[in-house]
Amino acid sequence: MTLITENNAVQPMLDSSEPIIVKRKKKSIVFKIVAYVVCIFLALLSIFPFWVMFINATRSSGEITGHPVSLIPSNHLSQNIEYINKYDEFKPLKGFLNSFIVSAGTTLCAVYFSTLTAFALVAYDWKLKNAFFTFIMAILMIPAQLTGIGFYKFMYSIGMTGSFLPLILPSIASAGTVFFMRQYMKPSLPMEILQSARIDGAGEIRIFHSIVLPLMKPAMATQAIFAFVNSWNQLFMPQMLLLSAKDKRTMPMMVSLLRGDIYKTEYGSIYVGLSMSVLPLFVIYFLLSKYIIAGVALGGVKG
Predict the structure, then answer these.
(1) Closest to 91 (Cα-Cα) out of 233, 234, 257
(2) Cβ count near 86 (within 10 Å)
(3) What are phi and psi of 2, to 5 degrees?
């Protein structure tokens, strides 16, 4: 800016806002640098255990026991795979198939029926709605291990041990998924669209499948990842329910067979089995990650 004096002399006039703008820019740059450094550090911290697991799959048991953590691959991968092949009961393809059947069924039941339950809690006003939601919250406080023995006795009494159904059907009543779906649906579900659909003669089931499910894709993708990973890694309940059915062992059960005895354990082969069991989880995450990112962006726009 300039200032004109009495002698028509032109003098520059300092803008007092310029130093403030410069300071704000500097603070913004510093904040971005710190944020990027923290994000990179957290990303490396998350990747580190998987990297060590994949590296240990290429090392021998002696190398692993001597130095448990290494970032450099070794040349014992083929030996570890040969050691795995010696186990007649270790059948990776069969384990993958069984784990996929259980995990896919669990994920579909948990996500679909939890979204349906959340729709009933958000879209309708009924007398015991708040009491029902309180009951769901109370279930979240009960550990699954606490009911494991009783559930096994019940399944054994009705002759359902050795089947995938006891591992899949209980996911229909997933309290944590219902809570998440309700919290996501409550601010994002437009009631006006539902009312318009009802006026046009659409039934409630059609409204749910045509309007609600497309709007809930980001939340469903997020919960699908959690449900699939949790079901895929589960060992406690499959070990109890499928122990007698050797042809229905899941991948974690297959990996548990590689422990060996108390005198000798081939840790390299165990890491190979763990690496094989983790790979499908990466595939599922990369397939559904775009919906999670879309959900975050959508939430940012709404906020």
Answers:
(1) 257
(2) 9
(3) -125, 160
- Token pair 């726009």 is found at 301
Q: Which helix (H) or strand (E) holds 295?
A: helix 267-302
> 53 forms bridges with which residues in the sheet?
none
In angstroms, rounded to a whole number, what is the distance separating the alpha carbons of residues 178 and 189?
15
- How far is 189 from 191, CA to CA, in rounded Å? 6
Residue given tokens 């009312």 in the structure block? 195
d(CA 58, CA 268): 7
SS3 content of the chain, % helix, strand, coil (to 5): 75, 0, 25
Query: How confident is the model at residue 301, as a pLDDT?
Result: 40
Query: How many Cα neighbours within 13 Å face the side chain of 204?
Result: 6
Of the CA atoms within 13 Å of residue 114, those in its CB half-sphere come to: 32
Strand residue runs (E) in the chain: 2-4, 10-12
Which residues does residue 3 pair with via DSSP β-bridges, in sequence order? 11
Does an H or E element contain 20, and which? helix 17-56
- Calpha distance 132→288 (Å, rounded): 31
d(CA 185, CA 123): 9
Q: The pTM is what?
A: 0.77
Token pair in block for residue 66: 């001597």
Residue-wise pLDDT for 276-294, tens only, equals: 888 888 888 888 777 766 6
